[in-house]
Amino acid sequence: MKNKAIYAKAGKFEIKDAPYPNPKYNEAIVKVTAVSLNRGEVRYGFTRPDEWIPGWDLAGEVVQPAANGGGPQEKTRVVGFLPSGGWAQYVAVPADALAELPLNVSDARAATLPVAGLTALLTISKGGQLLGKRVLITGATGGVGTFAVQLAALSGAHTTALIRSHNDEPIIKELGADEIIYSVDDAKNPFHLVIDSVGGELIGKLINKIVPHGMLVSYGNSSEQPEASYTVTNMYRASVTLYGFILFGELKTETPASALSRLADLVSRNKLKIVIEKEANWTEIQQVAHDLMDRRFKGKAVLKVS
Predict the structure, then answer these.
(1) Which residues contact 23 (CB under 8 A, 6 or more apart)?
(2) To the nearest whole number, what is the mean pLDDT of the chain?
(3) How far apart are CA 100 and CA 70, in angstroms?
(4) What predicted TM-score, i.e. pTM, was given to this entire model?
(5) What SS3 class is residue 1?
């Protein structure tokens, strides 16, 4: 059977013929209908000298279930996660990385869930019981941030969002933030949990805004500053935990399917809103990739696979 995929090499993204997947015994073949873009995979596409197929997030329909009998069956609509190779018409996905989609969750919305949704869910979970506690989300208008604000609010936390522009206030308030700040210096009270995507010099300021025995979870470095800047003695004094979060490492102990099912259920019950800022056909990958890296839109970007 014919198959096509998006190949990336040194900043050039091109749809070309690709091998039809040959699944392992625990993998299902999925006909992909929508994929979501993440800055990490797009950045690799701009910098890697060798040709490869990117793609972490996908949604579609199972056309061949896993031979071991596990996971979603044929004709089941699913959302899935891959370490690479998801930007194709047909892909092989481990059954434990696929979750069935509720009828009222579209493929486009589902495709935003794997990397951004799982990162938000698992970073928020590092704070344990959050009912009544104070949580700060930096980069709150990003793909992960929009999910994290909502999940923190759903957990009963007093949720503060750190954003850059007053124009973003309406959407952040709609997502459930109790408080909005534009600089960490504006925070009047310390936080029990901080979820940070900015990194760099902000790390030091954030540590000073955390309660004793609180936690800072760092999952990104959008500041692109080479090193975080903080004083270790400040961490000792307040017994602050600094947790470096990498999704691929976390998924070695967390089954993607169960977490994706939880997220899809929240979307189905209108408890979790999806912020899609850009939706296009996958033939527009070159422009969308550039727009994403240039931060020309917030929220998530989704490509429809044809």
Answers:
(1) 29, 64, 66, 67, 92
(2) 93
(3) 13
(4) 0.93
(5) coil
